Amino acid sequence: MSSPRFIAALAAGKLCAALLKAIAPKRGSNLPGAIALRFDPEFLSHVKGIDPAKTVFTTGTNGKSTANNMVVHAFRTAGRSVCSNLEGANMKPGVATALLRNSTAGGRLKDEYLILEIDERSLAGIAGDLKPGHLCVTNIQKDQVQRNGDPGYIYQMIKGVVSGLEGLTLYVNNEEPRSKSLGRHLDESGVLVSFGVAQNARGSEAEHDRGVTAPCPLCHDALVFTWYNLAGIGAFRCPACGFSSGGPADYVITEVNYEGGTFRAEGHTYKLGYTAAFFLYNYAFCLCLCAGFGLGADNLKKAFESFENIGGRMESFPHAGKTVKYMRVKQENPETLQNALDTIAVDKTEKVFMFGPGVIDDIVPHYSNTFYIFDCSFGSLIKSGVERFICFGGPVEREAAARLRYAGVPDDRIEILESDDNDTILGAIAACKTDNIYLITKLYTYEKLKERAG
Q1: Most exposed residue of 9, 176, 359, 388, measured as fewest CB within 10 angstroms of its CB?
Q2: What domains sit in the chain, N to C, each tagged with a CATH number?
């Protein structure tokens, strides 16, 4: 029988969710769950009807939203009933909200499957309540140092969850060292499944111009990469202890045809709806998870053809007869910045590159941090035909310019904007000779620029 505390939490959360749906249908992915948790801090563990064997968590630094949403779409395309947090509310209140929306008045989950994106820092607490039978770790990389510190800290948190769940099926990225090494921490009843992507035409540079590499997660010596598919993800080996990406993963994407929009896996050809290289690992994970749940190739082909990702990584807006292409990255995250640089470098036509790292103002106190731009290689971008590099971003525009100088860009091709107000930036765009402009900056800055552009 449910406790009075849980019943009160369920009623209050559902009432809040209903009110928000009526007055602000696009909001409310966290608040109902937060209210429920105030009434009952153990709300998640009290929801009935959740089968751990049909519960899937996806966590990691990069790619977890897309990977989770792709899996949910594949399951629903196959007619499976799924509860999920597709809005990206991936901490405890967001998970509680998803359960509130998809449970009966008595607190029983309506859906057969529970498939969730989980914030890596929140994983331990949520997994302790819901005991997932399946866990995917996309990668563990640098991100939000003020919040997450070093990736090794996050690694230890996830490792504790992996070792503490009996009978867990763990899905790891075969070409990302920290993710792959987690398989060593499964208990005897656990199952390890690896996914990967064969070397392809849009890999990142294997040699970094600043000599940066990753530490071995086992012995902490420097890893050696033979090739990269993405920044920090590729064929690797530790000369000190022998830990490596080894042979092919259990599920491997091969024969990637970016121009034709297809790839091969397990003897089948699939549509590549999103041709940025980082999407391939989302497809790879989706393939191996769905195979384990009996979703065949025909269903996956339909799912991949109709999948639409939320919030694209590249958007654009017109200004002064030019097209400004905005490359969205996560601040303090060198891997997403590197992926954006590599994507721009594929375009060999003449272009202008505008770079505005900006001050990080989503966490109090606000602060400036440019370490992540020194973790990236700008070599491919520089060789791809950039007419001019324009740096802006308040107090950090000179650090951005210095990074480009270290990478070998001549001073006469670097322009520093002394002001980062919108009109100054738009004026610099209007003055460009080419109409092909690439922009990397904060999402807030991009939205304001797009608003004022004409």
Answers
A1: 359
A2: 4-306 (3.40.1190.10), 314-452 (3.90.190.20)
Please state the separation of Cα 448 from the chain's center in Å: 24
Question: Tens place of pLDDT for every residue, the chain, 454 residues?
Answer: 689 999 999 999 999 999 998 888 777 899 999 999 999 999 999 999 999 999 999 999 999 999 999 999 999 999 999 999 999 899 999 999 999 999 999 999 999 999 999 999 999 999 999 999 999 999 999 888 878 888 999 999 999 999 999 999 999 999 999 999 999 999 999 999 999 999 998 877 656 666 667 899 999 999 999 999 998 899 999 999 999 999 899 999 999 999 999 999 999 999 999 888 889 999 999 999 999 999 999 999 999 999 998 765 678 999 999 999 999 888 889 989 998 999 999 999 999 999 998 887 777 777 778 888 988 889 999 999 999 999 998 788 999 999 999 999 999 999 999 888 999 999 999 999 999 999 999 888 999 999 999 6
In sequence order, the 6+-apart residues with CB closer than 8 A to the CB of 43 are: 6, 9, 10, 13, 33, 36, 37, 96, 99
Contact 101, 25 (CB under 8 A): no
